[in-house]
Every structure is written in structure tokens, then in C-alpha cells.
Amino acid sequence: MRNAITVLMTFAALIMLSTGASATLNYFQGFEVDTGDWVASQGITRVPSGGGVLMLPSSSGSYHAEIANLPDGYQTSFGDAGYSFYGGSDSVYHGDFYQAIDVYIDVNWVLPVPYPSLEAFWIDMTPYHADAANYGAEHNFRIKALGSSVEVYVDGQTTPIATLTTSGWYTFMMTWRRAAILTDPVITDMNVYDSSQTLLGTTQVLATSPGGPFASSDLRGNGYVWITVWQNGFAGDLLAIDNQRTGLLPYRPVPSSKDQCKDGGWQSLSRVDGTLFKNQGDCIQYVNTGK
After folding, report:
1. Nearest-CA neighbor of 60 among 255, 276, 279, 191?
2. What is the rounded distance in angstroms from the CA atom of residue 84 to the CA atom of residue 40?
3. Interval 216-242: pLDDT, tens
4. What is the tens place of the pLDDT at every residue in 73-83?
5. Does pTM top 0.85 for this prediction?
6. In the chain, at which residue ranges do the beta strands (DSSP E only) sit?
7. Is 154 exposed, middle or buried, given 0-12, 13-18 or 19+ CB atoms closer than 10 A?
8. Which end of the chain is more exposed for a tag (fewer CB within 10 A), N or C?
9. Beta-bridge mates of residue 64
């Protein structure tokens, strides 16, 4: 995939140069109102829960989005879906932060053609970087379909960090943290959560991707999420996405049961949009009503 890496770097430079939006700290896009700042290569559609082409329930709320692949939009045999800057890239360092997005994974997806042994698509993310040629802190989740399960790989690693065996919504999250020595590379945790916010897989990588290294002193704010290197025709060239978000660390999981709110648990939890609970009752009400 060396050619894919070269193309990735070229595309990434174009994406970074294309943004003119103002940054939004603690951004959340649940597609309840619109599709935000998504720049879709083929198309993105806001759909109601249970509706759209895929007829899937939303990860949360009443709406999510379906994003389409543009065949050969990345390179021959590999398409591209598009990207979002989480409301606007942020050139200011507010503190260590995360970026995340929910993607619906069908463990029974048919293997991609003509490269069934390769990953089906990538979920690529990067923080803001003033030097458009430095991709050192850019990383990707690589999604590989096996016919009855899905493996999640990170960057060029040969061992998956998670194997998904149940169809449903999964959260793909990257964090960016400054190292204790600011000349050292930025540290990133690559995390995969299920719909109940249980951590299924994680690995830590350094900002030494092609084009790097990316020094901790250069870390600013959020960058973009990009769905790309998508094999032509895979999953009918259509994926469901929801709950795109970024915010400061520590990341606070969303409660899925009332018991998680009890005995002070509410203090380490949050709503899906990142807002905090006032007390235990506020947390339990959210579990019961979503509000």
C-alpha cells in the first residue's frame, strides 16, 4: 500500500489547505439538524432513525447520516467519501483532546473485490498542523471485513486491535497528548468502543507517521476526520455515521444503564454531546429519556 500512503499524504495536504471555517471547541454533530461542514466526495444525506437507504437505527437521537463512496476517488479501485473539520480546524492548543465518530459496522459485509485480503476502508484523523507537509500525527483505523466478523487495524500494524463480531454502532476515537518533553512526538491512543461505551480495543502510537515526526510543542487543536481508501463497491458504496465529536481530555463515556450513574458514577460520565451531568438524578434521567 505504499502508493496509497503517497496519495494519502497528497490528499491530506489538499484537505488542510481547503478549510476556512472557524474552530469550535467541544464540537458535536449528531445530524439532528444538518450535515454540518462535511465535504462529501459523492454525497452525504441526513436520514431519520430507521430510514434512508440502509434503514438503520441511529446511534443516538432521531437522525444520523449516510455517506457515499466515490469509486476511484482516491486511486484506481479505491474510492473516497469525504471529510469534516469538526466545525472548523483549531490552531490554538486548549489542552490534550480527542476526536471521534460513530460508524455502523455490519459484521456480515461481503468481502471487497478485487482485494478481499486488504482493508475495506479507512477512518483517518489528524489534529491541526500548521505545516501542511507534516502528517506525523495523522493516523487511521483500517476496517477489514472477513465475512462474519470485522477486524480493526491501526496504521500499518499487522495485528488487529479489535475483532468485531456483532453488527452495530461503534465509536472510533483518537486522542492527542503532548509528551512530557515537548520535543518528543505527540502521543495518540487509538480506541474502539461498542455502543455501550465498553472499550474493545486500544493501542498507543507516536506522531511518527510519514511526513513526521510531529513534535509535542507543535500540537494545537482539532483537525479533520476523513473516510477514504474505500474499495470500490464495498458495502454498496454506502456507510452510516453518527455522533461526530471532539473535546478536551479526559473523555467521559456516555452511560447506557442507570446503575452506571449511581455511587458517584455520574461524575465521570457525560451526554453524547459532551455536556456534563449536574447530579445522579440528571444522569438517570438522561439514560431514561435521552434528554
Report:
1. 255
2. 9
3. 999 999 999 999 999 999 999 999 999
4. 999 999 999 99
5. yes
6. 28-29, 39-40, 43-48, 63-68, 70-75, 78-84, 97-105, 121-127, 139-145, 150-154, 162-164, 168-176, 187-193, 199-206, 222-231, 238-248
7. buried
8. C
9. 47
Please, are residues 107 and 165 in contact by the beta-carbon 8 Å criterion? Answer: yes
Residue with cell 439532528: 32
Q: Three-state DSSP class for 144?
A: strand
Q: pLDDT of 114-156, one tens digit each?
A: 999 999 999 999 999 888 889 999 999 999 999 999 999 999 8
Residue 259 grid coordinates: 446503575
Architecture of the domain delimited by 2-251: Sandwich (2.60)
Q: Which among 129, 127, 94, 24 is positioned nearest to 249, based on CA atoms?
A: 94
Give dist(CA 41, CA 157) in Å, integer.
28
Q: Quick one: which of 107, 275, 134 has its CA closest to 217?
A: 134
Residue type, 260: Q
User: Are the C-beta atoms of 126 and 12 separated by less than 8 Å?
Assistant: yes
- Which residue spans of the chain are classified as CATH 2.60.120? 2-251
